Amino acid sequence: MASPTTATETIELTLPDGSVRAVARGTTPLEVARSIGRGLARAAVGAAVDGELVDLRQPLDRSGALRLITSRDPEAGIFIRHSAEHVMADAVKRLWPEVEIDVGRQDHSEKFQYDFRFPRAFTPEDLERIEAKMKEILAEDAPFERIEISRQEAAKLFAEMGERLKVERLADIPEGETITLFRHGRFTDLCRGPHVQRASQIGAVKLLEASSVYWKGDESNERLQRIYGTAFASAKDLRAYEEQLAQARARDHRRLGPELDLFSFQPEAPATPFFHPKGALIYNGLMSFVRQLQTGYGYQEVITPQILDLELWHTSGHYENYRDNMFFTEVDDRRFAVKPMNCPTHCQIFGTRLRSYRDLPIRYADFGRLHRYERSGVVTGLTRVRSFCQDDAHVFCREEQIGDEVRAMTEMILRIYDTFDFHDVEIEVSTRPEKRLGSDEVWDHAERALMEALERQGIAYQINEGDGAFYGPKIDFQVADAIGRSWQLGTIQLDYQLPQRFALTYVGEDGAEHRPVMIHRAMLGSIERFIGILIEHTAGRFPLWLAPVQAVVLPISEKFLDYGEDVHRRLVDAGLRAELDARNEKLGYRIREAQVQQVPYMVVVGAREAEAGMINVRRRSGGELGSMTPEAFIDHATELIRQRRNEL
RNA sequence: GCCGACGUAGCUCAGUGGUAGAGCAGCUGAUUCGUAAUCAGCAGGUCAGCGGUUCAAGUCCGCUCGUCGGCUCCA
Known about the structure:
Shape: globular
Oligomer: single chain
Number of strands: 33
């Protein structure tokens, strides 16, 4: 940050066209914009220096690549929404002057939020009033001012304003950091920015919902009231966002699942799905796929107990670290726990005999049912349930085999995602959490091993500090679905703890005992959750190989029922999941129904077909494949299924 | 778990203290039909559950269960 004494020095700013401008240290991006052109200066909402977003009024203190951001740039939303936070807080203060403001924030989506000390929950009517007030404020078009201020002055100012929460927030700002305020009209907030120049650059706002939150996210703190909203440069952008929300609602697996008769939930089993026949077909289809793939990678499937003595969970450390998420039961005066993870049982299998270094890696896969107690407020649909199964596996290997194993796992995982047309995959390495087992040296080593394995494959990753499991660091795979939402699926977790706790050893080349390393791995994550994601990704249009009903045979009328039955029989005999819909309804009606149920193929048979021994095939993607022999269709479909191809 | 909202037929919803309704789905019949909804009739409800207020409760109050949106957590 610039100070007056250094203002005479010069810094060099590289503009996007490659030109370089030498300006005095302390020059603001807005001043640079003005020197380029009045139009640009007026249109700019913010700036970026070396990719970092900065406020237009922030004095620049170092050389770098300067880019001015207008409402057309993707980053504009950051400035707009951050400014909309202030406008919302302003509106709330105008309506209820006694309310204290906390802080605003925006998440990775298009939402922003602001927390208030307010005596009750905000109602939808409150939100309407606040939104209307915000629009008044936008119409006033006050400029946003950036003000640098001393810590003492800021503390005094907010104390006088009665903003006690702000005074406390101020105390959290590290010493030595410049304290800045932003003001528009009469509203002043403690804020490091960045903001737009004028309120009117916030083209459209909409408040979304309100909820209560704990101050600083800590359950022992008092409750504040949070309001969520969104803001865009234009009403058109807001409409596009609302359209996207409507899309997401239309794909919601909690609606589509029961509608397609895949699964249901019953009050007697909260957060535990019942898979109906069609859902079970998909469930088993996914398992077979994973089974086939991982067998090729040297995995062996095991089956292990559901309920195990508490002692095992003390040994594994789950009792100490994971107890709050476990189910317990007691019988014969003996205490048991329902397994929340498979890993301890795999350690036990490993430990049943003497292992040689020649046996490693040993790769145990397990589709065992897991139960985890999740707090009632956090469960939702299939994505967060209390009973589920993972495409779980544990690899026991030698230290020097970690790289190869992680590489093979990554390859397998990316192949799986590719099959489902998840092409946008982000990889994160999560490092040691606060609550953990093991020494810092072991963690250093484990974290480095994972990163090196990725680096050797040339795979880019991000680091997620402190987000590892209690027993080791992990690699997480995040994929973006068809409408751009991100989901966590696969995970690779390194574990030096369990082999030690279960005293697992193998005999090395040197004849001495060594400790194996354990790698936990899931690819789809949990089958339940994956089905939920897949429903939303495909909007219920499952790939042919997974579609519960792959083809429905539709005789035009009763007269062709015999031929329809014959065709149906042939499809079923060829291994296709085919149904016969011979209901007394018009063809259009039954076609529509098959479309709504997302059946990939509709096989129409009438006089022309019956006579010629042909069928007429329609695809759910629209359009007829035309007349063909049943054999030709069977060949075509079975080939697509064999290759697990998506397109129809 | 906490805060808030919600719970009426299989689904979507109407019903603001005075006799529980509609559309779709279902069933029956007619129609025998060529690529996204044929017509008619019938049936369908402990208004989530339990308790309370009231002459009278789907409607007002309390509790319980469940769902949804958040907090937090996560496969």
